[in-house]
Write a structure and sequence with these properties.
Helix content: over 70%
Oligomer: single chain
Strand content: under 5%
Distance between the termini: 42 Å
Shape: elongated
Structural class: mainly alpha
Largest sheet: 2 strands, antiparallel
Low-confidence stretches: none
Number of domains: 1
């Protein structure tokens, strides 16, 4: 007859519960995985499957009762680590949304909005278009595999333990989050430059021909030039997004601080 003691049951529960908390937190906040269009059951099932595959490769877990105060602190730390890692990758997609909002506003399409299942809210149509492109690029360069590889590596560089999350990791996350404005402006800069020249040309045209209806001419012209620039910049946009995703995959481990 096989007998299981309460100590063994607690050890098995801890060995599975704490890694599962980090995995689920990352999947809930990571791009594509955490999309609102992905059912919650799928996310939970995928998290359980990943945890079952990871647990045999992990070292022994700390001998702490999961229901104790120390166990709850460890659980909360794993959730924060997973959220931080997912947020580090999500910064790239937030920058793409920002670039789409800036470009759409300059093109006069700021009023046109669609429901975005990734953000679970209404976003400008141009931001939605760039978001779809970013998601396709993310999958094309195996960004989802980079996320899973970073998750597995995080358990080696920052294993489950009752130890505080270091300040260097928080500082790296804050510094990386500030890059959202840099990436957003960099992605929208070609379009902004083209539309600035267009608006200057329309202003000169209005001064030279006051009888011209600038609203009837300028609005469709601005939209046409905006889409033309987007089409021409598409070849440069894709590799740039790929580089951003690769940087984000490196930052995923950087937010954990120095290796332990």
């Amino acid at each position: 007859m096989i007998s299981v003691t309460s100590a063994q049951l607690q050890a098995w529960l801890a060995a599975f519960l704490w890694p599962l908390a980090r995995v689920l937190a990352l999947l809930a906040n990571a791009p594509v995985f955490g999309s609102g269009s992905v059912p919650t059951r799928v996310k939970i099932g995928l998290g359980v499957l990943i945890t079952v595959l990871l647990v045999p490769t992990l070292g022994p877990q700390p001998a702490i009762d999961p229901a104790s105060g120390a166990g709850l602190l460890v659980l909360a730390e794993q959730v924060l680590i997973g959220l931080a890692m997912g947020f580090a990758m999500k910064i790239v997609f937030d920058a793409v949304d920002l670039a789409g909002e800036i470009a759409g506003l300059q093109m006069g399409l700021g009023f046109a909005a669609l429901y975005d299942p990734r953000a679970a809210s209404r976003v400008p149509v141009l931001a939605e278009y760039l978001g779809v492109v970013a998601s396709l690029v993310f999958l094309a360069i195996n960004g989802h595999l980079m996320v899973l590889a970073g998750l597995a590596e995080s358990f080696r560089s920052f294993p489950v333990a009752l130890a505080p999350w270091g300040a260097p990791g928080l500082r790296a996350l804050l510094e990386w989050s500030g890059r959202i404005f840099y990436f957003g402006l960099l992605l929208s800069l070609p379009l902004l430059a083209a539309l600035l020249i267009t608006n200057l040309a329309l202003g000169i045209l209005t001064r030279s021909a006051p009888q011209l209806n600038i609203f009837a001419v300028g609005f469709p012209l601005t939209i046409f030039i905006g889409f033309a620039v987007l089409l021409m910049a598409a070849l440069a946009l894709v590799p740039q997004l790929g580089r951003f995703v690769e940087q984000a995959s490196a930052v995923m481990l950087g937010v954990l601080g120095p290796a332990r």
